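Hi D.,

Good news: the full-assembly prediction came through. Inputs first.
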Amino acid sequence: MMKSKALKPEEHYIKEEPYYQPVGEEIQVFETAYKQQLPVLLKGPTGCGKTRFMEHMAWKLQRPLITVSCHDDLTASDLVGRFLITSGETTWIDGPLASAVRHGAICYLDEIVEARKDTTVVIHPLADDRRILPMEKVGELLEATPEFCLAISYNPGYQSVMKDLKQSTRQRFVALEFDYPNAELEAEIIINETGVNADTARQLVKFAHMTRDLKGSGLDEGASTRLLVHAAKLMHDDISPVVACQTAIAQAITDDHDMLAAMSELSSSLF
Amino acid sequence: MRPPELTEDEIVAFLDECLEVESSFVNNEIPAAAIKQLPRPQQDFILNLINRVADTNIELAYQLACGAVRALKEMDQPMVEEWAMTAADDYDRKGLFPAMSVIRDLDNFIHTAHERAYGSLLEDQIGVLLPFVHGLAGRKLKLEAADSTYTDTETIFLPPVLAIFSDEKQNFLLYKATVAHHWAQIQFGTFRADLTRLPEDQLIKFCALETVRLDARIQHELPGLYRQMLSLQRNFEDTQPSQYNAELFRLLGDANASVKTTIDLLDKVPYSECPGTRIYQGTINPQAVAATMAKRIFREKALFKVALSEIAEEMTAAQDLTKADEKEPAKFKIRDRDETTKIRRDAIQLEFAGNLVAPPAHVKQLMRSIIVDFGEIPPEYLVAADPGEYDLTVADRTLSPKDLWQGTYHEEGAQLYNEWNFKRQHYHKNWCVLREIEVEPAYDSFVADTLEKYSRLLRSLRNTFELMRGEDKLLKKQPHGDDIDIDALVEAYADVKSGMEMNNRLFTKMHKEERNVAVIFMVDMSGSTKGWINKAERESLILLAEVLEVLQDRYAIYGFSSMTRKRCELFRIKAFDDPYDTETKARISNIQPQDYTRMGVFIRHVIRHFSEVEASTKLMITLSDGKPDDYDTYRGEYGVEDTRQALFEARRDGIHSFCITIDEKARDYLPHMYGAANYTVIDDVASLPFKVSDIYRRLTT
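Then the structure:
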């Protein structure tokens, strides 16, 4: 019988090495920042490997990884914790951030700009040399252990005034920029993740470059490495390349009818 | 029950009226006699069609009446309608004579009807073909309709309709193949050789041989497309090319073959051994290529070198290099990432003083374009320009909308919009030519005077609007929240003790009510506003802007004026992202009366602007002084109906429209255009500034 495991996030250690292909010196930089207890900011377009990088680092440093995907309803108490009522009494329950601080885990706040402005301020005392988390409701200050690490990510591609990271926040972090890997590397990643042959991977990367060229002239964003992996997985299991590109890539990045047709023509040209 | 057939007299009476027999003196008995024979539904269809065309031209409608019965025998109703509309459209664009020939030459229309039915129209496919060719890498090419198929290295010219195959899909594929072939010519260096000196017969031979080379490249780069091209060719002619010269194909198909290979072969291969013409190959127009290339190469060299000098300046400033370098122009290097001999899009990198440079997007685009022309970045390009070496104003003639009007009617750089013809019940496609023009700021005392004049009003307005601003509100009894709602908890606890189910709404939550409003003000800048109306408009805008700043709603202000469909100008006073600063104020103060009011096109343009902003409430407020009206036929009902249609399109996109007018007669037509509650008539112009802000407040609370 199939049964999925339930684990507490702070006890979840990544056992097997998650596949990650470094593009530059990001692994060394992160390790050093970790050692020096500096928080890290990852920027880059969606699906270029930020989250995978975090998993890889969590494995490498052998710390649990607590990921919080931020959304515009995320309040400070969602991060820090809140009182709940159990058996007639109120008990304090740690939020993911507090629990990461307590257990010396890596806390990764994904897409931080999506969170409400007041929420991002909670991490300020944690992100400078104080390294403390004030928990106003219980009247405590939680001091971070040397193992604790804070990492946040954001996508500078969404150039919306509303969704920009405040200077007071961003100037606390060591920033690593991520971009799509270059063509050979990206093909290698696809081969490694999916087991398709080298030719297919190269053509897929070429297709990705075509869509990335269309950014700004009809597309908001080009195909990410993640989408290429999706398409390659479909193709590996005998879905025809054109259908795979259309469903896994084109439909995922646009709803525009003409654009979809154009992308279908591009993929049918390539394969 | 079906109504009885119309009698000949009834038909004549109908035709007499709609063809204005009193002045046109046409003989309606001939067509009436024919129409009489038809069953009633067809009679109604024909008469309706004649009536619609009569609005365009009486003579045209009469000819239609005479030919309609025969047309109905040969074609189905939608086709007949298409026939009449084609004629009416031709009348608009080309005049009476070409339109008449469409009606008279019914046989020709029927003959080409299959083209219309199965053919692929460039106009319809361009939305797909353009992103397709942009996706293929290299220079951002343009596509245009023309009589022959060729490229000038910046634009690919294609026939407006392709109907070689009896199946629309195949015809579309032919477009795609043709586009790809011409893209390949540019991308794979066909024009790196000088073709202008080739005599005519050699050029034909060159064309044939070069196609073989390009096909091989396409086969390598885009195998799927190559298969489609082969199957197209096979569907077109069943036989394989008879003389198959394997050696020729081997030479040209080599990965290292260049245009030079083709040229070298010209004298060696006799004409008879040349492969046959491919249906997608089009022609080569060396003169057009040479002219375009010469211009572009000069321009791009200048732009690139100036861009390099900017980069160099930035980098030296950042690194504070020794001053010794300053005298010489900075030199850049090209670094190939690998030993790969071919230059691929990402494999080329720019190096300066030992460091890799990340050029900005427009420079990357420039580099690609240069590589397409030369196959590399030529060494002389890599030296940064001396200050003053190039006058970029000459090199970079980015067309400003104003320059365009120096010449004749020119549609470059403008946006095209459809217009609704209510009598014809049909859109004129790409009918209006619209440009966005910036209003020059005028730094005078107008703004200060206005603020002074209305200082008391402004104070009370500010107070009123401050109250409208969203405030934090504490919501109680929420299922999730920042804090515990003690009252709710006590209540719930009591419930539990008394054996009832516990409520889970136990939290309080701070909720900020945010106004999410985007509003565009459209200001009538027609000639009729000259004088105090214009002044009142400007004063109103200043007051509005002042209070909107308090409210922090997003707003934009545009003025509009037109002079026939070819010259519709939207004056940008403040875009959504512009701040309300001295420049914007100075622009408001310089709003000046221009020509006429062609409303529809501006509304359609504003719809496009709105599609770029995210807001839960989108509002378009028009300040106007009269009916839609333009120098040409945009008068009376026509203008009103087009505006109504455009407003309908706006409503469909979730945009609320509201009109503030000072035209006392507006009650006759505004309810029809905007709906009963969506307009206000202000009788006294002087009170406009008082009223506008008030109306805005009412609309958005």
